[in-house]
Amino acid sequence: MSTYGFENYSLQVGKKKLITNLNIDFQSGVISHLFGSNGVGKSCLAKSCLNIIKYTGRIQTTCNPVLLGSYSNIPTDLRLIDVLNFMKKKYEYHYVKELYELLELNMIPSSLKIKHMSDGQKQKVKLFAFLSKRPEIIILDEFTNALDKKSTLDIYQFLLKYVKQENAICINITHNLADIEYMPGFYYLLANKTITQISNKEKVIEMYVKGGMI
């Protein structure tokens, strides 16, 4: 079973202290939603998990996480069939095929280039490419931003299945209240240089209404 936790973790970018002496663990088999105001350091935290940004303390993990955000891309000149064939060769064939169908990519013309796809289709291809190696730890950084409702609901349904089926750890950094409405899980707030767990989604919604996470 995978583990992912922060021990005496601190994060500073330039002269700005974002997180100080954080100690927290995230559970597997459930989606952990992470909220917070703009500028508190959510994306910097995500990037530090891949050592893109330096931190102090320790991140306790059994394997490297996969980070998916607007900055996670694959070449847009590739056709869908190119991506599929590459993943079949690189990773376990039957699993790749199952993942492809689970994301309903078989409903998209295989000759279609990524640059000609809708935003929702591009995000599905991105999920397919990054999850074909069957990662145990996934960090999503505002992954459903600007998607149409159908694409967003499709991705919600897929993520719930994937996290449960693979018993994966999934940290979902988001501002989107629909994430917590359609993807039950645990809820966390990054504020005052630390992360605290929020008891339920109703409390999250109440904090948004009062302007505590905008």
Model description:
The chain has helices spanning 42-48, 80-90, 93-102, 119-131, 149-166, 177-182, 201-209, and strands spanning 4-13, 16-26, 30-35, 56-61, 66-68, 137-141, 169-173, 185-191, 194-198. With 214 residues, it is an alpha/beta fold. The strands form two sheets. Strands 5-6-7-3-8-9 form a six-stranded mixed β-sheet, sandwiched between helices. The chain has a three-stranded antiparallel β-sheet with strand order 2-1-4, with helices on one face. A hairpin with a 2-residue loop joins β8 (185-191) and β9 (194-198).
List the helices and strands and how they pair.
Layout: E1 4-13, E2 16-26, E3 30-35, H1 42-48, E4 56-61, E5 66-68, H2 80-90, H3 93-102, H4 119-131, E6 137-141, H5 149-166, E7 169-173, H6 177-182, E8 185-191, E9 194-198, H7 201-209
Parallel strand pairs: 3-7, 3-8, 5-6, 6-7
Antiparallel strand pairs: 1-2, 1-4, 8-9
SS content category: alpha/beta
Lateral arrangement of strands in the main beta sheet: 5-6-7-3-8-9
The percent range for strand residues is 25-35%
Our measurement of the CA-to-CA distance between the termini, rounded to an integer number of angstroms, reads 35 Å
Tell how many strands the DSSP assignment holds. 9
Largest sheet: 6 strands, mixed
Order of helices and strands: EEEHEEHHHEHEHEEH
The gross shape turns out to be: globular
Provide the low-confidence segments as ranges: none
Q: What is the overall pLDDT average?
A: 92
